[in-house]
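Researcher: Here's a chain I'd like modeled. Treat it as a single chain, no partners, no ligands.
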Amino acid sequence: MAIKKKFGAFAGVFTPSILTILGVIMYMRLGWVVGNAGLIGTIIIILFAHIIAISTGLSLSSVATDKKIGAGGIYYVLSRSMGIPFGGSIGIALYVGTAFSIALYVVGFAESFNSYFGFGMTASDFRLTGTIALVLLTVLALISTSVALKTQFFILAAIIISLVSIFSGSREFAPETVSMFASESSVPLEVVFAIFFPAVTGFTAGIAMSGDLKNPKKAIPVGTLSAIGVGLVVYIGLAVFIAYNINAEVLRTDYNILMKMAMFAPAVVAGIWGATLSSAMGGILGGPRILQAMSRDKVTPRIFGRGKGKNNEPVNALFLVFIIAEAGILIGELDVIARVVSMFYLTAYGFINISYFLESWANPDFQPTFKIKRWIGLMGFIACFGVMFKLDMFAMFGALVVVGSLYFWLQRKEIKLQSNDVWRSVWENVVNKGLKKLDAKSDETSSWNPNIILFSGESEHRSYLLELGNTVSGRTGIVTNFKLIIVKENSKPLAKTEQIVRDDDFRKLGIFGRQIKVENIYKGIENIATAFGFSGVEPNTIMMGWPKGLENSVEYSKMTQTLLHLDYNLLYLDFDRNAKFGDYQTVDLWWRETDSKNAEMMLNIARFIIQSPKWGKTNIRVLFLNNKNADSDIIKSKISKLVEDLRVKVEIEIINNAVEQRPFYDLIAQHSANTDLTLVGIPDYKIEKQAEFVLKTNQLFETIGSTLLVKAANNFNVLDLDFG
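Model: Modeled as a single isolated chain. Structure tokens:
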């Protein structure tokens, strides 16, 4: 049954938030903070903590006014903004932090309760009192959420009366001089900050009730920011009052000093008990709703998503909150619990802030009615993790490991929602700006970054052509494989979504897959080569299998002319089905005087090949055909210089052929018969000579292993290989 939404900004957000903010830390530890940090130090701590609270409150309020807010509060916002893996990992951390914060408030209540009635003041005594209080609060929550929330108005009145009683209290503890800064005997400021910080986390108590609000988009910003603002004023005002009216030594040693100096102590007692118990109640009401929302999204076990009653109360989730809170109570030390809670909340707040920053920066659909400056989110993110690093570096890394592990676990579960994912917008924004930068720069002087259009066909050795295409593209190149579907004339083209091909081979190799209908393979290749591409990352290389049996094809000749006219680099692989790529250990580059551009392209291909794990131990040879009887030492020296400039380690071999003048292909067959991959340049020839070239090349391929024919475009440098 749908949850009946009935609470406004004051009852549903401001009241639970301010009761948690003006809670156990204010009554039981603010004096201790002033005593250790001094007045100026305390104000700095309060202001810095509120920088995080305000930036997070602003970020969250802005995101809340952009999206429909459902049950689950912060989890709901993050999961709909940054995806289930991210929102779920932070939601789980926030849920555990909320459950532990219940223990913080209940142990604070136990300290005051036991002190007032003269009961035991050991950790075990606090555990007993805290457990009894937790049981009673849980029972109240089970009876009625509405009743629990309505009691908050009486507690708020009690807090106001207690503050009036404190400000009107005795001056008998007043110091001779006000301590402005921490003394040598004081606790380190980072410890003081960690214990104080849970005081400003209370604003999430109202957001956790988002599913029970009449108008979340209005109530969350108004209620949250009002609670943070009131809390800031009260804390600074009370800190100044305490510093001028209570001795620092007393503040450091007596946690109940506010009760002792108040005009009417029972009023302070009522405020302390009301604040601590209502803060705990806020966690008891809000925590289960976070878990219930996550369970509905299948992040956590579905049993916790079930509710009872007309308002669908999360009873099962409440019992788990009870167990975690009880575990916190068993710690029994308020200061220890406070530091644990700080880490959980700082982690969650950091990611809330970066969520807003990324949304406002990258998502064109982000249109909040509550607008703030983008840098506020980034500042909040940096502040959160900067504070975590300062407080406890190991705890920070531990929190990141836990959140990271939860993220990858949820990512593997592949839970999807019908909502936007800001990461897609982030990548689109990065790609957009990157393409504009690339398009604005001339690539005439830059090194070759392969952007390959691959036609792998449907042969049984297709996977090897895909593998080599991926290898040749290097670490930053792009490979797009096109499947050509032969159809009759006037056939309807495939829809854009149908043109996208995804399979395991492509995913493993990082290759993009496309398929289109064509009436003629060669015309299809021409059309793709002419039109396919995007500004900034234009395709520069065509790769396909070697076309055996097409030496007399007029259409193939025209296609080749078109590709050469378009100035593509051309790569043709003749794959040896028996030897395949052998042991991936030998690569031969064959050079002639006419291979001036092809030579540089071959060196670039060799550079990418040796970066591949399979080819990592490859021995590369440059074999130069010396037809002019030039000095071998001079040739070797010049080639070594060319190779050194391109940072490729090769073995250079000079084949003197001035006397015998043996055919080039005969020498390749002799020297590269057992080579795993041979690279040979395609010479410049007239198109009418293509059939003769293809026939001779086919004969060569019968005698050697897998071979890659290379024809470089005009953007490659002309290497001077004429050593005669």
